[in-house]
Design brief:
The chain has 10 helices and 5 strands. The chain is of the alpha/beta class.
Length: 257
């Protein structure tokens, strides 16, 4: 009998009957201890369970749609073409007046030199630092006069002007362009009506609508006037090689334009 195999003699009551006061919890714990003592510490089942199955991927919540930031409208330029005088004399008066917003009001402003319809207009970035009453009164002006005479042009017949009405330390050309400086320069050239325009300043073509990714030297036209671009006068004075290169280009330009 199974009872005998568990060590209970025939005719004797099982040990559990002698301890009827043992709680169900203690009985269950004793049963588990007995099976552990018998070496059974695993639970077996006939149901097949896949041990290598991949977990079901969690449903990813759709990310909220990104809201595009609202683009601020570019500020209105300080100067528009409709605001500018429609005569050369009126423009020149406005150019040196306190109403010109492109330099501080206390700056010394210098007027352009020349008359409408000049054979060439020389447009530099700004006046010389020492200019007060006359534009290009220093070494830059002497270089320009010598250059014009070498080309066979009377300096008194040329139109001399600048992109800014006053000498400015480290001007922010990009900001000036947004304020409408390029519009004012193009308007100035249209009123002056020069046969040709020599632009001295590598930052100026972009103000006049030239692609910034393209070389400044590829800028060749402003309105109806052929244009040639080179470095600013102060850099030309400091670099003999650049002056020689400009002279060669000027000779070719004057012969073909």
């Amino acid at each position: 009998m199974i009872v005998a195999s568990l060590g209970v003699k025939t005719g004797e009551s099982p040990p559990m009957e002698k301890h009827a006061n043992i709680s169900l919890e203690d009985q269950f714990a004793a049963t588990l201890d007995w099976w552990r003592g018998a070496g059974v510490d695993f639970e077996f089942s006939d149901t097949v369970e896949p041990m290598l199955s991949e977990e079901k991927p969690r449903q990813q919540q759709a990310a909220p749609a990104k809201q595009e930031p609202e683009l601020e409208a570019p500020p209105e330029p300080k100067v528009k073409a409709s605001d500018l005088p429609d005569s050369l004399q009126g423009f020149r008066e406005w150019w040196v007046s306190p109403e010109n917003p492109f330099v501080p009001r206390q700056s010394i402003r210098v007027a352009p030199i020349g008359v409408e319809g000049a054979p060439i207009m020389v447009l530099a970035a700004m006046p010389e630092e020492g200019d007060k009453d006359t534009l290009f009164s220093g070494s830059q002006g002497r270089m320009m006069v010598n250059m014009l005479r070498a080309l066979g042009i009377d300096p008194n017949s040329a139109y001399l002007a600048c992109a800014l009405p006053a000498y400015t330390t480290l001007p922010d050309w990009d900001d000036l362009g947004r304020e409408g400086l390029g519009t004012a320069i193009v308007h100035h050239i249209a009123l002056a009506k020069p046969s040709k325009v020599l632009i001295l300043g590598s930052k100026l073509p972009a103000l006049l609508g030239h692609d910034q990714a393209a070389a400044p030297e590829s800028f060749g036209q402003i309105g109806n006037s052929p244009a040639l671009t080179s470095f600013s006068p102060d850099r030309l004075l400091d670099h003999a090689r650049q002056r020689a290169r400009l002279w060669k280009r000027l000779c070719q330009w004057m012969a073909t334009a």
